Structures
1.
Amino acid sequence: MVCLGNICRSPLAHGILQHKVDQLGLNAQIDSAGTNGFHNGELPDSRSMEIALTKGIDISYQRSRQIKRSDLANYDLIYVMDSSNYNNVLRLANSEQEKNKIIMIMNELEPGRNINVPDPYYGGEEGFKNVYEMLDKATDKIIEKYL
Ligand code: 4NP
């Protein structure tokens, strides 16, 4: 799961999917990262931790990190939150096979529409709620499709 800072959107995507995988007893390795590395080592944004907790999901074990080239080799699917993330991650790909792993997460629900999960960082709580709802639906679809 990849966004820009790895403190707002992708930690939620990571935490929600991890929670569902754990509850269902599925086997999948899930992680998240940011393209910019500005928040390396930091906890998720408190607003992301809060909205997750209201749903019974603790994401406080996560620490922000920057995506690296080897992630594209080591993971089967690389979900990005928006088109800017998509372009940034695409530049790290070493092959067509790696490029094909990169998916805008909302395309799992609405293929080909390239809908962005909006960056909630500079907004209020409502933005985080909206992000949560979008990612809840997208992660259901991911489980149905791949796990
Ligand atoms: P995220 O939100 O990409 O959803 O983690 C952001 C958080 C911080 C910054 C950018 C986006 N930042 O550059 O500080």
2.
Amino acid sequence: MTVFQEYNFDGLIGPTHNYAGLSFGNLASSKNAGAASNPKEAALQGLAKMRAAMELGLKQGFLPPQDRPHLKTLRALGFAGTDKEIIAKAGEAEPQLLANCYAASSMWTANAGTVAPSPDTGDGKVHFTPANLAANFHRSIEADTTARTLRHIFADEKFFAHHPPLPGAIHFGDEGAANHGRLCEAHGETGVHLFVYGVDGERFPARQKRCASEAVARNHLLDPAKTVFIEQSKAALDAGAFHNDVVGVANGTVLFLHEESFADPKAAYAEIRDKAPFVEIIEAPADTVSLNDCIKSYLFNSQLLTLPANDGSGGEMALLLPTESEDNPAVKAFVDDTLSKNNPINRVIYKDVRESMRNGGGPACLRLRVVLSDDEAAAANSYFLLDADKIDALEKWVRAHYRDRLTPDDLRDPAFMDESFRAMEALTRLLEMGAFYDFQQ
Ligand code: SUG
């Protein structure tokens, strides 16, 4: 019998993690602009979260950080000379542009792309579309390397189909799995795909376009009877839910979300129930948890994880939440109430991912879910699938190469570029990636 399991591919947080205030509409990013970050702590927090998921008996992988500063982009924008001269010139003339080329934002792999597992696709392959992330300059430059990374890890064409990032920039703005969820009775059963898109609000622009979600569904050969396109509420967008995964998460039979997530919840729930009759919708009422509490605490940016069935009953789920949710009394009370009720969610784990949270990235932002059969998993590059020893090795690498304090001003020092590239060189050796990155060409 073919067994399917969910693999969470977390973004390994890169050595240039910093707070440059680059994401309009992301309140945490704006609020912490200019603050000092701690890249070492950030990466260790991320690895500790991966370890916690593994200790639940779940499968865990990771995507490596991208090479930053991205010199290829700086050269394309007219900065010339040696690598160090490029950094010095850009730092002098365009420090904010330099910060864009230094962002460690590929850590948020929920935005790396959208994935369709093989039971759902017309050709029985696992399909990947890297997100174009056109809404923000620092994120748009991730797409090429993300595409290369996904092909590197999932190389076997017998099992995996890779599409290029969508063309058309913001006209087909695509932010990947952060606006996508899959409902199913078990990971290996055919799933129903929820694609949530936005329409510009009064305060903030929408990043995910409906036409982009539709194109991804076409590319992935999904059955239209098993896809639902849902408009995000403008209230949520304008309150700071720049991706729908800030206000809701789907897993297995459960849709766990805020009452004000969708523009027309009644119609959306009716279509979801029609296409996925097994669904259990667990909603936080606005008078219990406000949108603001939701966005500050990242309650719904939790990982909702189906626990491996060790007693034959199966279907039990754990919520992996950021500690900010534990610290918010209204949110904590709602979580406790959800646990006490008769539903599949019966375990909760709070993890500290504050360094990422301060840039608007919670536990669910940090992972890309890939459902794989045993054969598909065996065909994936095993360097990127984790066990306790590999996490130890990555922690050691972080401790050897990362700073514990970084300010946006430090990015202008050309010596920091060398430091970052040295770390990336060491990682490519550890993972036997060859000359993978642009700076190694
Ligand atoms: O795209 N923050 C990211 C956070 C992404 C969160 N992902 C999900 N919700 N799935 C973003 O806004 C901030 C970088 C800075 O300001 O330095 C940033 O890119």
